[in-house]
Structures are given as C-alpha cells and as structure tokens.
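--- STAGE predict ---
source: upstream dedup step, 1 unique chain passed
mode: sequence only
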Amino acid sequence: RKHPFEKPVVVSFAWNDSLDLDNHSAMGKMILDALKGRVIHDDSRRWLKGIEHYWHDGEYIRVEVREV
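--- STAGE serialize ---
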C-alpha cells in the first residue's frame, strides 16, 4: 500500500503451527508493529478496532486487514 487505510480496521491472523491459539498474541503484536505507518496508521484505539486469531491449513501466516 502507498498509504495507510483511512478508516479504522480489524486485523485477522490465521495460523498453522503447534502453539495454542491464545499464545499467538506476541507474534501478532510484532506483525502489527510492522504494519504501522504503511498499512495502518497505528495500533491505537482510534485506528485498530479489533484483532482476531484463527486456524487455517496453509503453509503461511495469513494477515487480513479490513476497514470497519
């Protein structure tokens, strides 16, 4: 993206590894920090309205950013 989303967002993560789903918050935080200023303005309450964690069968971490 050339510019961050102009509306608040929800970020969804989909994982495929051996960790419990609730143990992914630290990794999600690192990914969110990498998105700041490029994809999202920042991770404050104004711009980030929610975070979701799911399982999937892909061989990658899926990150989806949706305007709300």
